[in-house]
């Protein structure tokens, strides 16, 4: 009801395969990542500078979510004005608070507010879509197409195009997944590194080495620099293992399935608990220890690392998410420090794991980078 019947979460296998094929390359392809990297890099640099220059406490998580939301809206709807951005951001806040809430449609309940938020999201996105369609003549001749443009124009092998409700539900899902998870994992990776000085030192040394390899004529980071961030990638994977933003998912069996001797009949809905796999000591020795080095060597066996899903349902934006997180951590490691106001504050777990105070902290500039 909240994400939409035409979103990836609710599509049949056949339709999921079709729409994923139509949308994956513009999100995760090399050309797409190259096109997005410059804007992500500039946004991160200016945001970190603004936080540090303000010299005051911020809710680190809240501000990270705002930054990642600005990035994802730019990628999907490059012409969105400030009013549209604020409306979408506020609606997504209400929507996310109800993702794992009881579905009680009465005033005062999170689900009731979220249904209203979804109606507002649909209205805003439909308005932007109508404007795009009205101005489409000659619009797509160049290369400066954002994701909404591509969704309007894309055709499958049979010449079928996406309807408005298809595009809106796809956008609602992508815009949400593209900022909420990235913001949370970026915060936790930053916090966990600072709590583990040896990890912080090694990650920083890697980023300094990458900076030394960048030619003076190159402006900003390139995708080839991102590919060199091997240890930082391990830091992110370890954060994803320990901090499960989506700690469970629901799936309906389309046929009878045997799971470790238990029969799941066709039509039954089951819960998949990602968290239990990620802290299983038989799979990950000393599972509660933050140890990025565990990711050196061969990848984990299938079905034991599920932050982006699995198989045909693998998140189509996983490379974009890791790029965004990596760029932020790169610049943070080279020149900034996080000082939490309440480092021992508790954690709440719904709808996503986060500090009770949203990681209230000061961001201090400690150098001008390498």
What can you see in these coordinates?
The chain is mostly helical and 370 residues long. It has a domain at 13-220 and 325-365: Cytochrome p450. It contains 12 helices and 9 strands. The protein has helices spanning 13-28, 30-54, 60-76, 82-97, 110-134, 147-153, 164-195, 197-213, 223-227, 230-242, 274-278, 318-335; strands at residues 58-59, 248-252, 257-259, 262-264, 269-273, 336-340, 347-348, 354-355, 360-365. The protein has a 3-stranded antiparallel β-sheet. A hairpin with a 2-residue loop joins strand 3 and strand 4. The protein is globular, with a radius of gyration of 21 Å. The model has no long low-confidence stretch (mean pLDDT 88).
List keywords for this structure.
single chain, monooxygenase, 9% strand, two-stranded antiparallel ribbon, three-stranded antiparallel β-sheet, 370 residues, Cytochrome p450, mainly alpha
């Amino acid at each position: 009801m909240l994400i939409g019947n035409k979103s990836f979460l609710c599509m049949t296998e056949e339709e999921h395969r079709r729409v994923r094929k139509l949308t994956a390359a513009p999100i995760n392809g090399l050309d797409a990542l190259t096109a997005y990297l410059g804007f992500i890099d500039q946004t991160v640099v200016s945001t970190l500078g603004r936080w540090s220059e303000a010299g005051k406490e911020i809710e680190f998580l809240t501000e990270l979510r705002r930054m990642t939301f600005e990035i994802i809206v730019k990628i999907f709807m490059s012409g969105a004005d400030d009013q549209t951005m604020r409306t979408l951001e506020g609606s997504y806040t209400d929507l996310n608070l109800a993702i794992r809430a009881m579905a009680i449609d009465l005033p005062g309940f999170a689900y009731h507010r979220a249904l209203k938020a979804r109606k507002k999201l649909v209205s805003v996105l439909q308005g932007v879509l109508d404007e795009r369609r009205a101005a489409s003549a000659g619009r797509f001749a160049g290369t400066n197409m954002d994701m909404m443009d591509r969704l309007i124009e894309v055709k499958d092998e049979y010449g079928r195009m996406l309807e408005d409700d298809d595009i809106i539900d796809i956008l609602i899902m992508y815009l949400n997944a593209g900022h909420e998870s990235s913001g949370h994992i970026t915060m936790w990776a930053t916090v966990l590194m600072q709590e583990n000085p040896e990890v912080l030192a090694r990650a920083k040394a890697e980023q300094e080495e990458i900076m030394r390899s960048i030619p003076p004529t190159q402006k900003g980071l390139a995708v080839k620099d991102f590919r060199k961030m091997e240890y930082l990638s391990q830091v992110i994977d370890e954060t994803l293992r320990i901090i499960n933003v989506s700690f469970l998912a629901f799936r309906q069996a389309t046929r009878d399935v045997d799971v470790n001797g238990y029969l799941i009949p066709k039509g039954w809905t089951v819960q998949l608990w990602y968290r239990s796999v990620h802290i299983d000591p038989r799979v990950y020795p000393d599972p509660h220890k933050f140890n990025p080095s565990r990711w050196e060597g061969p990848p984990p066996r299938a079905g034991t690392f599920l932050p982006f899903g699995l198989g045909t349902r693998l998140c189509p934006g996983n490379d974009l998410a890791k790029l965004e997180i990596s760029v932020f951590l790169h610049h943070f490691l080279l020149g900034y420090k996080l000082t939490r106001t309440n480092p021992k504050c508790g954690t709440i777990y719904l709808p996503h794991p986060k500090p009770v105070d949203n990681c209230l902290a000061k961001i201090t500039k400690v150098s001008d980078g390498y």
